[in-house]
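User: For my dataset I need records formatted as: sequence, then structure tokens, nothing else. Please produce one.
Assistant:
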Amino acid sequence: MHLASDYIYPYKAAGDVLRTAGYASTSPDDVLDAPVVVCSELPNNPGGSITNSAETIAAGVILASELPTPLVWIEHWPNSVDTRV
């Protein structure tokens, strides 16, 4: 697998608040492997977590990047992110 993209994705969370999530996607070397997307919670985002908006983010990322499905979706929480909501 190799890195195919690395972006900041804007999305609207509950309450119509604009937020961003970082994501990176890989392209598999073998046609039998699924692409992998790692969605990272960014430390400067107010409001709810990426977990609460995972469906919205995933749908937007898949459409914007024209990714094939099914794929592997991983949520990444850096140590510096406060997980209290």
